[in-house]
Amino acid sequence: MPEQTANPPVAPRTRLTWGGGAVRLILGIGGELPVSWLSLRPLDAAPAPEIDEAAAPPLVELQALGHGRFPGSHRYADTTLGTRLRYLSHAETIVGSDAELRVEQADSATGLRVTSVFRASPGTPAVRVWTEVTLAGAGELRLTAVSSAVTGAFLADSGRSVDQLDVLHGDSDWVAESRWRRVPLRATGLVDIDAEVHHHASRSRFPVTSRSSWSTGERLPTGAVVAADDSWALAWQIEHNGAWHWELGERRIGAYLALLGPTDAEHQWSTVVSAERAFRTVPVSLAVAAGGVDAAFAALTAQRRALRAGRSRRLPVIFNDYMNTLMGSPSTEKLLPLIDAAADAGAEYFCVDAGWYDEGGNWWDSVGEWRPSTTRFPGGLGEVTGRIRDRGMVPGLWLEPEVVGVRSPMAERLPADAFFQRRGERVVEHGRYHLDLRHPAARAHVDAIVDGLVDEFGVGFFKFDYNIMPGPGTDLGGADPGEGLLDHNRAHLDWLDALLARHPELLIENCASGAMRMDYALLSRLHLQSTSDQQDPLRYPPIAAAAPASVLPEQAGNWAYTQPEMTVEESAFTLATGILGRLYLSGYLNRMTPDQLALVREAVAVHKELRATIARSVPCWPLGLARTDEPWVVTGLRTPESELLLTVWRRPGASRELTIPVPASRGDELLPEVLFPGPGAGAATWDLDWAADSGVLRLTSPETADAAATARVIRLRRR
N or C terminus: which one in the chain shows less Cβ crowding within 10 Å? Predict the structure, then answer.
């Protein structure tokens, strides 16, 4: 154990108020209590009600070997180290254009020094937070969990008890992404046990955890606590491309939200800190709004745009040959007519997806060299990329850079330490080894691959896929597996930063079996997010509709894979899925009739007209976010000009009529109009009626067999 340090001088308990961005933060500091986060409110909101300090959890909760919890539980609360921390100092600075607050605490028994860092961007109703830990004096301490942030401010700020709040959280899975639920906070398992009688808080919690390196493979790192009457909300996201954990729990008085990266109990993570070796948690963002779900995610949308400040904001229309089209089997013969048709439809980038490196048709476990196939491209891949450029588009390629197939020659050429290992054995998953990007040979390998493809073929777009998980991580070098995984996750981000610095014009899609790694560690850097691998156009609308809760609308790559065998209404249905996000085009356009291709061109043209507006708009869900199995699906964007853009999908079994409430526009004289498909497309007419006095849009779809599956993109604009 380190030598003990003198207790810091005890100052009276007081309030620290900090205004950064568009939020006001209040901390309780000083006295014989740890620093606590008492309030987070919009700058223009009235001050929060006074909070009982006993109801406020410590700002930072830590677990370490030799230091547990009191009382014992599974929760990330009541830690002895978190309880012993005492305020030392704080400092306010400006970092770039962001306001920053650093608050330092100490534990005199161990010598721990803990700094909480808050950053807020101009005009943004959110704050980004992380924790830095080091040790004063000699010795070391092994940490097993450190929170990025803990707060119970949602109770004081909303003026409500646990019984008056709902929690919004999301499940995710391959081709079943972004399934949101809204339930009363009490119904999540926060059992009311009458803490006063038992003299202890409940040990229950509502935990949400993601394991391994698919950050959104099971659960979403985003959530919200919302007043039951939709008058107030707090939303958050954990910004990490690996394992994480968040939980809500009830204290003896009040409740808490804890946001963490990897932990020992959930992820086999621990790390040692000393005076020479510090630790920094993964960052998290919290956004606050005086409103309900839509307001909360509007605030989080603003934060996501702030995180992307300085990144490329180009929004080209991309054609990708994979989905329901070539499906990983491209060739010159198949691609050339698709390239011509995509260019005729208005695509600006053309991505050759999986299979371009395959010689024998069985490539899954042999990937790793990433050299173009000579059998698929007898005249060379350059013939294909040259055709793409000749047709005025930018060439792109699919790549899965973090893996090497077990049959690949690179599996033997690279040193053993360049791969994830457990107990001396390479980690194998689905016929692949996982590269460890902490190793210089692994990084040099992926650098050479990407740089070579850019230089040789003029690639301006990569679809970076990621189809395996390495389990808890790698214990190479004696680390816990979770620590090895966290260090690799951070090395991966460093690699991406260096890659984009070398190739600033390069655009990169973030894909992991669809959307299994849809986090803002990656999306703050990358440009486009695949929202799903869903191949059934009837099942895609709920995924596309919910995606803006997790990803910026202008980054949400929703597939529009219309096919020549579809009717006009079926084509309109699948094309509409992409228009209010990032239209990600696919399908056998080369086999279409002129009228069919004209409908595709129309969808692309409408999207291009709207894309600058989409990048300034915020999402809304007039029928509610937590609706995944309904026959009608509706998602919307509210523009800075107070217009409303809607995509409305009618799936088989739906009634002809739908009433869409738009309470924010009640009293406004709006003109509803169908933007897509237009009157010349051969699609049936939908009747639209806006009732300003009630703030309701009523629509009636045609009663024809053709319209069993149909959709429209609608705008409500001011007269």
Answer: C
Range of the domain at 653: 620-718
- Comparing C-alpha atoms, which of 90, 68, 117 is closest to residue 14? 90
Name the residue among 40, 128, 20 with its Cα closest to residue 524.
128
**409, part of any domain:** yes
Angle at 292 between CA 294 and CA 179, to 5 degrees: 60
| CA–CA distance, 296 with 282 (Å, rounded to integer) | 22
Pair (102, 250) in one structural domain:
yes
Nearest CA to 19 out of 81, 85, 92 is that of: 92
Tokens of 702: 């045609």
Does residue 9 belong to any structural domain of this protein? no
On whether both 47 and 116 belong to a single domain, the answer is yes
Q: Which amino acid is at 308?
A: R
Give one DSSP letter per residue of 677-711, joined into a string.
S-GGGSPPPPEEEEETTTTEEEEE---SGGGGSEE
> Could you tell me if 97 and 242 lie in one domain?
yes
pLDDT digits (tens, 9 = 90+) for 226-282: 999 999 999 999 999 999 999 999 887 788 999 999 999 999 999 999 999 999 999
Give yes or no for a contact between 296 and 563, defined as CB atoms under 8 angstroms apart.
Answer: no
Q: From CA 395, how far away is CA 463, in angstroms rounded?
A: 11
Within a domain: 163: yes
- Are 470 and 241 a contacting pair, CB within 8 Å? no
Q: What tokens were used for 688?
A: 């639209």
Q: Which of 278, 307, 336 is the last residue of a domain?
A: 307
Q: How many domains does the chain have?
A: 3
Q: What phi, psi does 476 have (nearest 5°)? A: -60, 135
Mean pLDDT of 597-626: 96
Indicate whether 225 and 330 sit together in one domain. Answer: no
Domain termination site, one of 555, 585, 617:
617
SS3 for 414-425, per residue? CCHHHECEECCE
